[in-house]
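User: I'm curious whether this sequence folds into something compact or stays loose and floppy. Could you predict its structure so I can see for myself?
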Amino acid sequence: MPQHGPGRLVANRDLPSTVPVRPQGNLPVIVRVVWSDGTEEWRPARAVRWTATHVMVAWRDDEANPRSERHEWLKAGDVARSVSWLVPPVRPS
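Assistant: Here's the prediction. I'll summarize afterward.
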């Protein structure tokens, strides 16, 4: 059974060569996270810092617990403001 919660490691985290020191915003985004066990998920997050190639995102593993907030640097290609499906998912009838 996959491990859930703050103990999971983000396998696709990637630090930029230079890191902005101050927060730059608090923009809602959708991020692609690959966990260390190989599980991939798309989840809501907030972009708080960014460079031309990377975005620092924040989310809570437990929405009710502010202490569960985590911050991760991801490549910009793993962060989106919106998603448009090339092939829409099948909707149950």
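Summary: The two ends are 31 Å apart (CA to CA). The mean pLDDT is 89.
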